[in-house]
């Protein structure tokens, strides 16, 4: 397949290139060469005639999105609209990467693909708008929701916890925010399997299991062999611009049940991250 990847210099974009480069012809589209908010890029992308576009480009700074909703919608909603229109022009399929933050977090179990969406922050609303354009403009689409993504050079939660542990003798971490930590290369491998199925629809692709930020931090420090006391604090005590869904855990129900695509546990994935 000829596959275009937007936001190809990002954490997932790079993991996807590693996962797909041997079996597909890739068209990486980094932000500096291809801004998804530029409408002139609609026809430029269509002219490349990809079979599939993987839309990874996004404003992923959740607190930044809360402070600047217009940019969040410009990129995550209208940028995705542009990509969907390009796919419409060249009849390509679209795989749109979305987020657990489309849910409000009040469910007392992990969210399934068909649970009702109800985002409570700007980032979630802008990403849901991207889902809307994907679903309404195209027939051939995959919407892949993921959560708490981390990987090589991403500077995400595991790196931040270890950085904090280097500077502080004790850490305070939120205990009432739940999610599904997901290793970017594992997600990329699952996407590599999904795109062969042509089983279009909505999927939750996350490492199996769920934990609080507090439990995640403890496991990171344990696996990295950096013993530090960790104090559990409440979300309300941690000041930030955006409010995350309290329970943002996702369950991979559709792909595991229908397509036999599943990801290992989040603890095993973390081990693989440290081993690399
Ligand atoms: N990270 C998470 O925890 C998480 C969780 C759930 C879902 N997701 C979704 O997963 C996808 C990949 O996330 P990621 O972790 O790989 O994020 P990332 O590392 O921040 O990558 C996003 C990429 O998009 C680029 N970008 C931003 N605005 C753009 C624009 N206007 N045009 C073109 N490119 C643009 C960024 O470039 P710059 O770096 O130059 O800005 C960056 O290279 C996103 O759709 C995100 O919403 C992420």
Task: Explain how this protein is built.
The chain is built from ten helices and twelve strands. It has 276 residues and is an alpha/beta fold. It has one domain: Rossmann fold (3-Layer(aba) Sandwich). The protein has a six-stranded parallel sheet, sandwiched between helices. α5 links the parallel β4 and β5. α2 (40-47) runs parallel beside α4 and α4 (69-90) packs parallel to α5 (122-137). The model has no long low-confidence stretch (mean pLDDT 97). Residues 6-7, 9-13, 31, 35-37, 56-60, 75, 79, 97, 99, 127, 146-149, 154 line the site of NADP nicotinamide-adenine-dinucleotide phosphate.
Summarize the structure.
By secondary structure, this protein is of the alpha/beta class. 40% of the residues lie in helices and 17% in strands.
């Amino acid at each position: 397949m000829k596959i275009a990847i937007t936001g190809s210099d990002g954490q997932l974009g790079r993991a996807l290139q590693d996962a797909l480069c041997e079996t597909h012809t890739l068209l990486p589209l980094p932000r500096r060469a291809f801004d998804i908010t530029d409408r002139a890029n609609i026809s430029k992308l269509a002219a490349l005639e990809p079979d599939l576009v993987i839309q990874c480009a996004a404003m992923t700074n959740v607190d930044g999105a809360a402070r600047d909703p217009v940019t969040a919608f410009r990129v995550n909603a209208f940028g995705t609209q542009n990509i969907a229109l390009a796919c419409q022009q060249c009849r390509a399929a679209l795989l749109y990467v979305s987020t657990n933050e489309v849910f409000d977090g009040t469910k007392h179990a992990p969210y399934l693909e068909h649970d009702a969406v109800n985002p409570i922050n700007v980032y979630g609303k802008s990403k849901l708008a991207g889902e809307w354009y994907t679903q309404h403009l195209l027939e051939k689409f995959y919407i892949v929701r993921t959560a708490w993504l981390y990987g090589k050079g991403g500077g995400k939660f595991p790196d931040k916890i270890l950085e904090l542990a280097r500077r502080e003798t004790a850490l305070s971490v939120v205990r009432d925010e739940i999610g599904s930590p997901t290793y970017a290369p594992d997600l990329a491998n699952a996407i590599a399997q999904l795109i062969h199925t042509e089983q279009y629809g909505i999927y939750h692709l996350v490492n199996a299991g769920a934990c609080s930020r507090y439990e995640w931090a403890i496991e990171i420090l344990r696996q990295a062999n950096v013993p530090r006391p960790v104090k559990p604090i409440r979300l309300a005590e941690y000041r930030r611009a955006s409010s995350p869904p309290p329970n943002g855990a996702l369950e991979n129900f559709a792909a595991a049940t229908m397509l036999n695509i599943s990801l290992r546990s989040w603890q095993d994935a973390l081990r693989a991250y440290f081993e690399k």
